[in-house]
User: Which sequence fits this backbone?
């Protein structure tokens, strides 16, 4: 996609019609080439991407249903796609399977059945002679042991070897949806800035962010919403939530890290605000990260740079200015149906950037037990450099 | 624990001092007896239970950090407990490891290392000759393949074989915390009833429940909060959230299904309300589920009944009254550090109930595309029958 095509997209009329059949066809081509006879995908990102089965809001502690470790999609390399669904909560998956001719069956596993026998019964329906099986990377070992029992001679590989390369390059529909996710995120941030006043806690603000998204009808946060108030002499607290009960006071820097999942695609966004008048050093590091981000975005030219090199572009600027130790994480990560996905903008990843890859670009500086400063946007790689999919201004917001 | 001991517990002074060292000692005894040399636990329920590493609020889509599929705790059968932590977000785990003499090290995995080599380096520190390894049931297959590569001759079993039997029987500290979780849940429900008025949506109400919990300082919901408005002629909608944008109107039954995680332990609670004057049949089915629950609770006598039999106690009453088809799920499930855990109150589970097991008891009746009706409490097994850990009244609330 060229930049001008993207600009002509209307935010109001989003053509959310992912071509799942084409994705399945391409995945099956790759499976056959790789000698894989069947792929097992859990209810998650890969299955949403390939077959359009949406993801339910995950439970916060382990939820267990009978036979759940074998539930998911069984996809034959030649043909056939069977969903195995837990009886408890089966209604959702049966509805998801409707009007999808590429799904043969949503089969419920009942408490009267033995999961291992159900698995044996399902895999019989695929041509597996001398071919391997691919399992979702995050499939549970509890399920994998059953596969090894039922198919002891089948080589096991990871489904990501097939699906991750496909997911890296976004098509026009994916970019359209991600742009809309970015616009909603911009709007929520604008609303939340008005909520900042002395005394509100990090948690209050994170809660308001989630609520603003919910009011706009999006699905769920793409990751746990992060809000941090920091200033010299106050320890940066790490807790089980990414926002604490610390109240906002004059002299606090306020950093945001949040995103949403809209029509199955993620946003991820960051900005910095300040309560009161920031000291000169704070303005300096804020300018520095904006410049580092700008240089990196400019360098996101298709075919011209690797993921690892892009990390260096931003990191070397921050190091040169003497703040390298404060930039403690990778420059960014691929983003799409999940908030973090390959490629990753860090030294081990030598992937060459290509048109229609989408990354977060998120340099930050954290001064030890003092201020924090960050900026983050989702950016698409084009032939002319990076094109941000969120557009909220980057000036330091003073409260 | 006897019923009278529990009654003497003060809600205000909870002795939250889980004896992790004793739990580790007992797990290691079992590992050695079972010929297991090392156990790998992901950051999750089992690791919280055995070693006191708290669980962070989970991300909603896949979050990926370098080497994360091998991150977690490596626990030797003889001694040794090493945490492998992702560099990104390592601060949390380092703090969690502090002041826990039973943890030897929180070792960070860096982008400059190869995960497989890190694994090989860690497992060298344990005595594994001819002994197997136990992996967390939900460990990712991506990690399991690395274990099979590094330890090709080690038999793999599931960590739940060691930990699940321990988790089934709660000690005095666990019961105290779960009772407090029940009290907080009662209080939140009381508050939320006042929020019900014509026009609020299911989602608004679910959001208010989560907010009321958050204001009381609890950790996070124990599972996705469910609120349903139903009446004859309105389809029961299933969506990716467990609450939709349907507005509350006169004639709606209102069913609740929610819980919280307090000090690492879960509650799970259900009641039913009605807007307006319920028809006689609705009062009848409401009385029926209250009676079915009461009979089941009375039957929860240590050593006298199995999980499957307890399901029959409630189900046969509902079937006899002609509503068996409306009771679509198991009677309940074990609950503790996760919302669902063994034993399960359904036909395949022949576990004999024992003192200090804790279960949800949650009969329901759902009339097809019409009213729903449910009640749920967490109940502890004693020598004299079940003792509920939540105490909100069970009369039908009219709005």
Assistant:
């Amino acid at each position: 996609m060229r930049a001008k095509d993207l600009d002509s997209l209307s935010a109001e009329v989003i053509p959310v019609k992912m071509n799942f059949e084409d994705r399945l066809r391409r995945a099956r081509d790759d499976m056959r080439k790789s000698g894989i006879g069947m792929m097992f995908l859990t209810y998650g990102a890969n299955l949403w991407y390939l077959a359009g089965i949406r993801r339910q809001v995950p439970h916060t502690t382990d939820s267990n249903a009978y036979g759940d470790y074998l539930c998911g999609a069984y996809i034959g390399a030649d043909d056939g796609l069977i969903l195995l669904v837990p009886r408890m909560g089966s209604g959702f998956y049966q509805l998801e399977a409707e009007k999808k001719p590429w799904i043969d069956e949503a089969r419920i596993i009942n408490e009267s059945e033995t999961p291992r026998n159900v698995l044996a019964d399902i895999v019989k329906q695929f041509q597996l002679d001398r071919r391997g099986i691919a399992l979702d990377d995050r499939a549970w070992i509890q399920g994998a042991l059953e596969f090894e029992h039922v198919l002891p001679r089948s080589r096991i590989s990871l489904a990501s070897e097939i699906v991750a390369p496909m997911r890296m390059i976004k098509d026009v529909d994916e970019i359209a949806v991600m742009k809309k996710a970015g616009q909603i995120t911009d709007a929520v941030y604008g609303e939340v800035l008005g909520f900042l006043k002395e005394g509100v806690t990090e948690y209050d603000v994170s809660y308001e962010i989630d609520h603003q998204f919910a009011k706009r009808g999006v699905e769920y946060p793409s990751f746990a919403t992060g809000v941090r108030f920091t200033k010299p002499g106050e320890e940066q607290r790490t807790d089980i939530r990414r926002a604490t009960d610390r109240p906002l006071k004059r002299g606090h820097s306020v950093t945001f890290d949040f995103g949403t999942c809209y029509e199955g695609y993620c946003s991820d966004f960051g900005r910095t605000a300040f309560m009161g008048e920031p000291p000169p050093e704070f303005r300096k590091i804020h300018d520095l990260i904006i410049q580092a981000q700008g240089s990196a975005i400019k360098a996101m030219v298709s075919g011209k740079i690797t993921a690892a090199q892009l990390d260096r572009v931003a990191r070397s600027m921050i190091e040169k200015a003497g703040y390298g130790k404060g930039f403690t994480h990778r420059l960014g990560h691929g983003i799409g149906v999940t908030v973090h996905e390959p490629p990753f903008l860090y030294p081990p990843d030598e992937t060459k950037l290509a048109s229609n890859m989408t990354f977060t670009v998120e340099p930050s500086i954290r001064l030890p037990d003092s201020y924090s400063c960050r900026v983050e946007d989702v950016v698409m790689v084009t032939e002319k450099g990076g094109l941000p999919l969120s557009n909220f201004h980057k000036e330091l917001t003073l409260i």
